[in-house]
Design a protein that fits this description.
Number of domains: 2
Number of helices: 11
Strand content: 15-25%
CATH class of the largest domain: Alpha Beta
CATH architecture of the largest domain: 3-Layer(aba) Sandwich
Order of helices and strands: EHHEEEEEEHEHEHEHEEHEHHEHEHE
Distance between the termini: 7 Å
CATH superfamily of the largest domain: NAD(P)-binding Rossmann-like Domain
Mean pLDDT: 95
Number of strands: 16
Radius of gyration: 19 Å
Largest sheet: 8 strands, mixed
Helix content: 25-40%
Length: about 325
């Protein structure tokens, strides 16, 4: 089997390719060619340290596997990555381990692709302004992916609680996008949002990537026609946007059962603000053309994505295949 570090994975995966492969997996799910198995979550310190184990089976690719990923906020002060983990991929015909990769880069790039895909299929086609809420690990992936999937974007704003850290992050965005992802930003303006409320009011597309357990986006801030990709709620009890906003929007999910248990729609359902029938469908069915998405420029749309291991496993398998072809990574005898 072969092991790939994050640096090795970077050699094998690029954003346009990952957007395509994430759409492929979403479509495979729509065609009943995947299985996602129960997730194990554990909060070591609520809101500050957690881990999850996700697993699944991509029948069309004849692979299965699992991912264990951890998030420890205080690692930043220890000069360690806050997000770490491993992905294991197995052959579904023999059970043989194919390989293992570090998880943080794959988690970042495929989550970025998911947020961008939500916008690609649900945002207004004339959208020009993007707001990223959160400036942690995931922010740069969301920006890079959104710019690739939505080339009409002209202004990208980022909002976060720590304004000093936020401004430092925003100053580095153009250089990082070019160096890490090969994304040209000459036509795009990047801004640090001094006011979350004003930034929300001025945005066509909003992507939330925070670990919040209390709503940070208010209904009255969001203008008609806005699209929101909610990427932060991936564990029971997390919530980034007002339940009233969810109740007024057209809501699409990546995995209906999982989102109802631990996604953005979990709490509005428990509060009785919405019913299960409020969910319009899964993104894979929308990509496949089996259901209808946005039907007017006035609608508010939401994509609630908790993340699925099948995305990580499929991406890791592609990276491992490229590593085999090009001879990079570490080969392990078993």
């Amino acid at each position: 089997m072969r092991f790939l570090s994050n640096e090795h994975v970077r050699q094998g995966l690029h954003i346009p390719q990952v957007i395509d492969l994430v759409e492929t997996v979403y479509r495979a799910r729509s065609e009943h060619n995947t299985e996602t198995w129960p997730t194990i979550f554990y909060d070591f310190v609520p809101g500050a340290a957690d881990m999850d184990i996700k697993s699944g089976y991509v029948k069309s690719a004849k692979i299965f596997g699992h991912k264990t990923v951890t998030w420890f906020a205080e690692n930043e002060a220890k000069q360690m990555p806050t997000l770490m983990g491993l992905i294991n991929v197995f052959d579904a015909e023999t059970g043989k381990p194919i390989g293992m990769t570090e998880a943080s880069f794959i988690t970042g790039i495929r989550t970025g692709a998911s947020g961008a895909i939500g916008a690609k299929y649900l945002a207004r086609k004339d959208s020009e302004t993007l707001l990223i809420v959160g400036s942690g690990n995931q922010a740069i992936f969301q920006i890079a992916s959104a710019l690739c999937a939505f080339p009409s974007l002209k202004v990208v704003r980022v909002a976060a609680r720590d304004l000093e850290k936020l401004r430092t992050f925003v100053d580095t965005i153009p250089t990082r996008l070019q160096a890490e992802f090969g994304v040209n930003t000459e036509e795009v303006t990047f801004q640090a949002a001094d006011s979350l409320e004003q930034a929300v009011k001025a945005s066509d597309i909003i992507i939330t990537v925070t670990p919040s357990r209390t709503p940070i986006l208010k209904r009255e801030w969001v203008k008609q026609g806005t699209h929101i990709s909610c990427m932060g709620a991936d564990m029971e009890g997390k919530q980034e946007i007002d339940s009233s906003l969810v109740s007024e929007a057209k809501v699409f999910v990546d995995d209906k059962e999982h989102c109802m248990q631990a996604g953005e729609i979990e709490i509005p359902l428990k509060e009785g603000k919405v019913l299960e029938s409020h969910i319009c469908g899964e993104i894979g069915d929308l990509i496949a053309g089996n259901i209808e998405g946005r039907t007017s420029d006035e609608q508010i749309t939401i994509f609630d994505a908790t993340g699925m291991a099948i995305l990580d496993i499929y991406a890791a398998n592609i990276a491992l295949q490229m590593a085999e072809e090009k001879g990079f990574g570490v080969k392990i005898e078993m």
